[in-house]
């Protein structure tokens, strides 16, 4: 395996981690959206994510593009094998975008309630399906000698993947609640603190259960940790960050809580990457058929060219992201005319 193949394995992971952290909180806000009371509170939540949600999804597009260019067989296998699931995810993401833009275009209570429901349900479905997809990658999927997926849509709905889906849903719901505490003024922010405390316990409990199940039933995920014990520092950081986020929330330190929640997501993504490496798509029944960073990469010239472009483009994306969050920092003021959702 070449250094560039390893580098692109890491870069794709970084891009998907950025998506999980940034778009994760607005998916989490959608989880709680119907718990908001009245039109004003729901508009507060929408205006909290309104300036940033579309920019957050750029990380998913960039990650998908990087996967396509750096590891085209992986892109082909995942997007063709998970086709129906991907269509459901796209439908959910499109529904969220439409609901955000259409929700406040009419004063009708029925109109707004309908789009509120669409926004919440679509957010939950997207968050759950992202977790299920990751669970299937962790477990492995049935592949043939050509690297084609040989299962069905219902093959993806196995107990292990559904369990990881629930972990992901709890993770993003907690992350979203931490974001609401950070952004929402008054009673909504106080209630969100209660939501975060309760969901934080669920998040930690599900993570612990999933960890024991993974150790017991997915021995291939433990191989790298057995050969390189220092890797255990990554899941240890994850559980410490989860506990820290709950503790900071309890002590009314919302910025630290949100930061700790973000670290927990990054550490969980890092744990997954460490467990899978060098595999990108493990084969369920025959490890020799797995798609790895070595056998599924583009040419060295392609990887080198992309790396140069990444060195130019990623700092721009990071700078823009930092600028947006600084520009729209602080509590949401729903009376401000610039808030239009």
- The CATH architecture is Up-down Bundle
The gyration radius over C-alpha positions equals 20 Å
What's the total count of β strands?
2
Order of secondary-structure elements = HHHHHHHHHHHHEEH
Q: Going by CATH, what is the homologous superfamily? A: Formate dehydrogenase/DMSO reductase domain
Distance between the termini: 49 Å
Mean of pLDDT: 92
Q: Would you identify the regions where 5 or more consecutive residues have pLDDT less than 50?
A: none
Number of helices: 13
Largest sheet: 2 strands, antiparallel
Q: Domain count, please report it.
A: 1
Shape, principal axes of CA atoms: globular
List keywords for this structure.
341 residues; mainly alpha; Formate dehydrogenase/DMSO reductase fold; two-stranded antiparallel ribbon; 13 helices; 74% helix
Could you characterize what this model shows?
This protein is mainly alpha-helical and 341 residues long. It has one domain (3-327): Formate dehydrogenase/DMSO reductase domain (Formate dehydrogenase/DMSO reductase fold). The chain has 13 helices and 2 strands. The chain has a two-stranded antiparallel ribbon. Helix 1 packs antiparallel against helix 7 and helix 8 packs antiparallel against helix 9. The chain starts with a helix and ends in a 14-residue tail after the last helix. The model has no long low-confidence stretch (mean pLDDT 92).
């Amino acid at each position: 395996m070449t250094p560039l193949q390893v580098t692109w394995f890491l870069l794709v992971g970084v891009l998907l981690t950025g998506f999980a952290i940034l778009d994760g909180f607005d998916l989490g806000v959608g989880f709680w959206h119907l718990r908001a009371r009245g039109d004003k509170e729901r508009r507060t939540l929408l205006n909290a994510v309104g300036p940033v949600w579309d920019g957050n999804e750029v990380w998913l597009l960039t990650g998908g593009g990087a996967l396509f260019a750096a590891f085209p067989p992986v892109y082909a296998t995942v997007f063709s094998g998970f086709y129906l699931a991907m269509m459901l995810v796209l439908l959910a993401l499109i529904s969220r975008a439409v609901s955000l833009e259409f929700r406040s275009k009419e004063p009708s209570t029925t109109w707004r309630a309908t789009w509120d429901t669409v926004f919440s349900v679509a957010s939950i479905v997207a968050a759950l399906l992202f977790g299920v997809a990751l669970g299937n990658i962790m477990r492995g999927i049935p592949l043939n000698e050509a690297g084609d997926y040989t299962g069905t849509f219902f093959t993806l709905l196995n107990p292990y993947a559904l369990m990881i889906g629930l972990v992901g849903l709890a993770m993003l719901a907690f992350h979203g609640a931490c974001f609401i505490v950070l952004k929402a003024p008054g009673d909504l922010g106080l209630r969100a603190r209660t939501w975060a405390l309760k969901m934080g316990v669920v998040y930690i409990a599900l993570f612990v259960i999933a960890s024991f199940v993974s150790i017991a039933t997915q021995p291939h995920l433990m191989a790298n940790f057995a050969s390189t014990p220092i890797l255990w520092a990554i899941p240890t950081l994850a559980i410490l960050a989860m506990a820290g986020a709950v503790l900071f929330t309890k002590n009314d330190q919302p910025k630290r809580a949100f930061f700790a929640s973000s670290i927990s997501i990054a550490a969980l993504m890092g744990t997954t990457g460490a467990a899978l490496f060098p595999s990108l798509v493990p084969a369920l029944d025959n490890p020799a058929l797995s798609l790895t960073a070595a056998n599924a990469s583009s040419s060295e010239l392609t990887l080198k060219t992309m790396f140069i472009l990444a060195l130019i483009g990623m700092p721009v994306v990071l700078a823009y992201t930092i600028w947006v969050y600084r520009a729209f920092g602080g509590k949401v003021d729903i009376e401000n005319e610039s808030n239009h959702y």
